[in-house]
């Protein structure tokens, strides 16, 4: 069947590669080639056609090039299946026997015995071949053979492409990951961290100090290793000094993109690391999307929620994730969404607006009736007028209090004074908003109150992995060993986690300094159990929220209450 199919392809599609359409600009060719590579869409707008497993017809959107060879074109290794790089630098260079293939990622050099799952150290052997030409690459795409005539695995699609289409795709592959990304020189990799106006000095240092310690340690080790290799007459092009700049943004958020453009023109960076802002992160997110700059784990409660954006990797969905957890848990209680009235109470401001809006959207999607909202105006005192509004809200409703500590204490006291038949059926609050004040919940309300808790539960066993250069699992211990203490442990913990992840990612990149590959390596990482503060971090192709869950807990009785799990790690 395969031989008949190939004969049909040979008869129906001319196997020459045209020089391209002179009416098309280089940018247009690359745009169309990108659509073919990433989406499986032809220049005509139709889906690419192909066959796999000898005779199974598929369209390009089901078997896109990016699915196996990654956005960067650097290839993947997973289990016993591996897909070699398809970027021009590797395609148009020969594959040599043994390990002398400097362009390949480390995962394609050698193969230690007994490794069955993807890790950066799984190194399958590669079969030697000469460099591709335009002609042999067209044959590979349309006939499923490499330059030696060897057949590819049957899972590699054979595409039905005419000369113009195959030429466009080849032109794109030649340009893919062909030059180092901006921010990389022969000697250094430049990074930046963003700090916006309105951030306290303590929060600023909580973000910057762990990143600077990480870079100092990394650079000192690079110096030692370079000197060792120099003494042994060994050449290695992967070493780069890591530098960190601080990009300070001032004024209104709508001016941030213009300020970021100024910083970037003055000195491009390879990626943004961390970063902290008091409110929305969207202007920075959109700048990174437009410029193609990775932004890794900004310390924000207001990430952009998107299924398609690529360049920002968040720790979680932030406050949105807590609203998801409440909607999921509440919807699973007796009565379900349709028969559970909900009253949301929040003060005007970014946190209340974000949480209430997210909950309303999710709750209505799951079939619940739009919640009643009691909005506390800016500067409003919670006196008798507010208490009357609260008392007149729906009977037997679930009360969702998206409030910070001061407002929460006042409302909790008001609820405690209500008659039993006027109290809500349940109360939900946010640990992120309340922080340590959540432990001061009045005893009379503890049985009614559920708390979103997006952290590792105190009773969860600590992970066994001891990643990171320090050999410790928490930012607190890491800083303490250096005689330092953070003014904001939450931010420091996120940056410490980022430094641990960067250690592995930069090691695996070797000298393939491409921004898309940087993000591809994050995507390929196995799930991480490396933090004393957060549960499992789950990575995967295109996933941009590493921590995908949240506990629902309650307080036990007593003066020193414990957190009692009322849900497992609610995953979204």
Report on this structure.
The protein is of the alpha/beta class and 572 residues long. The protein folds into 3 domains: 174 residues, no CATH class; 200 residues, 3-Layer(aba) Sandwich (Rossmann fold), CATH 3.40.50.2300; 154 residues, Response regulator (Rossmann fold, 3-Layer(aba) Sandwich), CATH 3.40.50.2300. Helix content is 35%, strand content 14%. The protein contains 17 helices and 18 strands. Strand 11, helix 11 and strand 12 form a beta-alpha-beta unit. Helix 7 runs parallel beside helix 16. The longest helix has 31 residues. The radius of gyration is 27 Å and the shape is globular. 38% of the residues are buried. The N terminus is likely disordered.
Summarize the structure.
It contains 17 helices and 18 strands. With 572 residues, the chain is α/β, with parallel strands linked by helices.
């Amino acid at each position: 069947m395969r031989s008949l199919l190939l004969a049909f392809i040979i008869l129906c599609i001319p196997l020459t590669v045209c020089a391209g359409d002179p009416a098309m600009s280089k940018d247009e060719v690359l745009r169309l080639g990108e659509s073919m590579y990433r989406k499986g869409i032809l220049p005509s707008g139709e889906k690419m056609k192909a066959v796999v497993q000898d005779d199974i017809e598929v369209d390009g959107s089901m078997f896109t090039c990016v699915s196996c060879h990654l956005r960067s074109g650097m290839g993947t290794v997973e289990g016993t299946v591996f897909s070699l790089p398809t970027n021009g630098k590797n395609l148009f260079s020969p594959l040599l026997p043994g390990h002398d293939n400097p362009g390949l990622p480390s995962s394609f050099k050698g193969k230690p015995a007994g490794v069955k799952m993807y890790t950066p150290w799984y190194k399958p052997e590669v079969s030697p071949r000469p460099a591709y030409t335009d002609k042999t690459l067209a044959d590979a795409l349309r006939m499923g053979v490499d330059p030696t005539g060897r057949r590819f695995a049957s899972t590699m699609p054979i595409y039905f492409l005419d000369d113009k289409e195959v030429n466009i795709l080849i032109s794109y592959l030649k340009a893919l990951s062909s030059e180092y990304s901006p921010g990389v020189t022969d000697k250094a990799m430049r990074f930046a961290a963003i700090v916006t106006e309105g951030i306290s000095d303590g929060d600023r240092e909580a973000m910057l100090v762990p990143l600077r310690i990480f870079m100092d340690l990394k650079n000192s080790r690079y110096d030692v290793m370079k000197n060792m290799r120099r003494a042994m007459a060994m050449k290695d092009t992967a070493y780069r000094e890591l530098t960190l700049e601080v990009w300070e943004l001032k004024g209104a958020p709508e001016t941030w993109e213009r300020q970021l453009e100024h910083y970037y023109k003055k000195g491009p960076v390879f990626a943004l690391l961390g970063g902290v802002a008091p409110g929305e992160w969207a202007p920075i997110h959109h700048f990174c999307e437009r410029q193609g700059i990775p932004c890794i784990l900004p310390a924000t409660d207001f990430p952009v929620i998107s299924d398609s954006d690529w360049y920002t990797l968040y720790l979680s969905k932030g406050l949105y994730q807590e609203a998801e957890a409440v909607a999921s848990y509440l919807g699973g209680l007796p009565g379900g969404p349709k028969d559970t009235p909900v009253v949301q109470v929040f003060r005007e401001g970014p946190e209340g607006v974000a949480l209430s809006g997210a909950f309303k959207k999710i709750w209505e999607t799951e079939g619940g009736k739009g919640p009643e909202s009691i909005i506390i105006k800016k500067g409003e005192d919670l006196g008798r007028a507010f208490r009357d509004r609260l008392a007149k809200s729906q009977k037997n409703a679930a009360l969702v209090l998206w409030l910070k500590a001061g407002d929460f204490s006042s409302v909790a006291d008001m609820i405690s004074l209500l008659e039993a038949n006027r109290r809500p059926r349940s109360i939900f609050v946010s640990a992120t908003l309340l922080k340590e004040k959540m432990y001061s919940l009045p005893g009379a309300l503890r049985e009614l109150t559920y708390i979103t808790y997006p952290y590792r539960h105190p009773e969860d066993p600590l992970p066994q992995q001891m990643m990171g250069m320090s050999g410790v699992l928490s930012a607190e211990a890491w800083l303490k060993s250096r005689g330092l203490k953070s003014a904001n442990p939450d931010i420091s913990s996120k940056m410490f986690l980022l430094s641990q992840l960067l250690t592995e990612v930069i090691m695996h990149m070797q000298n393939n300094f491409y921004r898309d590959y940087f993000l591809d390596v994050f995507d390929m990482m196995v799930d991480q159990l490396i933090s004393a503060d957060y549960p499992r971090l789950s990575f995967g192709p295109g996933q941009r929220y590493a921590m995908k869950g949240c506990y629902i807990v309650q307080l036990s009785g007593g003066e020193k209450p414990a957190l009692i799990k009322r849900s497992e790690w609610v995953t979204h």
